[in-house]
Design goal:
The chain has 222 residues and is an alpha/beta fold. The chain has one domain: Rossmann fold, CATH 3.40.50. It has eight helices and seven strands; from the N terminus they run αααβαβαβαβαβαββ. The protein has a seven-stranded mixed sheet with strand order 3-2-1-4-5-7-6, with helices on both faces. Helix 2 packs antiparallel against helix 5, helix 3 packs parallel to helix 4 and helix 6 packs parallel to helix 7. The longest helix has 15 residues. The structure holds calcium ion. Calcium ion binds next to loops.
């Protein structure tokens, strides 16, 4: 025992899932339907989906933004947590990938909560601002092209209300952020975002070692 985050062996990880995960049949079916996809690694871990849904519940969130929907697992988790009058704007560039998730959103009864916009996310975020969305969103989940994370941060900070929550996925990036020799463009972009978030007085934040690293950043009052 020590005062650092536990190392999850397979045995401990299995225990964690058995004593934490409450994934239902619809979510499991969506996850399993994506498992054979060539980009299946882009799907979040189920315990991360549950954790993000809990954050949304704690926040009493009703209006959310997701940047990078892929086949819709995280959107399913978040849309459920936003409640019956919730709205989740989902940004993705692939109609093909997101189409995999739609039947599952329908089965879960959350399809009408999800406003799916197939376009470059920066265009959609600009449109939300132009529609009067500034300060009107409770949360945003960012899990798309890493080299645009800084731009997504700038746009989402404008769209979130004070007290709103930003969640950035993949902020440990398989551990490569800690390897100075790794100068891949995605790694460099995530590293720069991590540096910026850590130093940014506009947010309270924590980098949580769940999934591939999830940074929570709560927008402080203006
Ligand atoms: Ca991801």
């Amino acid at each position: 025992m020590s005062n650092r985050t536990i190392n999850l062996t397979d045995t401990v990880y299995d225990y964690l899932l058995q004593h934490s995960l409450r994934e239902d049949e619809i979510a499991r079916a969506l996850r399993e339907s994506t498992a054979a996809h060539e980009w299946a690694r882009m799907q979040i871990a189920p315990e991360q989906g549950q954790f993000m849904a809990l954050q949304a519940e704690l926040l009493g969130a009703r209006r959310g933004i997701e940047i990078g929907t892929f086949t819709g697992y995280s959107a399913l988790c978040l849309a459920r947590a936003l409640g019956a009058d919730g709205r989740l704007v989902c940004c993705d560039v692939s109609a093909e990938w997101t189409a995999i998730g739609i039947p599952f959103w329908e089965r879960a009864g959350v399809r009408e909560r999800i406003d799916l916009r197939i376009a470059p996310a920066l265009d959609t975020l600009a449109a939300l601002l132009a529609e009067g969305g500034r300060g009107r969103y409770d949360l945003a989940f960012v899990d798309a092209d890493k080299t645009n994370y800084a731009n997504y941060y700038d746009a989402c900070l404008q769209l979130l209300r004070p007290g709103g929550l930003l969640m950035f996925d993949n902020t440990l990036w398989g551990g490569s952020v800690a390897d100075a020799a790794d100068q891949d463009a995605d790694t460099v972009a995530i590293r720069a975002l991590n540096d910026r978030l850590h130093a940014d007085p506009r947010v309270s934040m924590s980098l949580v070692p769940i999934g591939d690293g999830l940074t929570l950043a709560r927008k402080r009052s203006d």
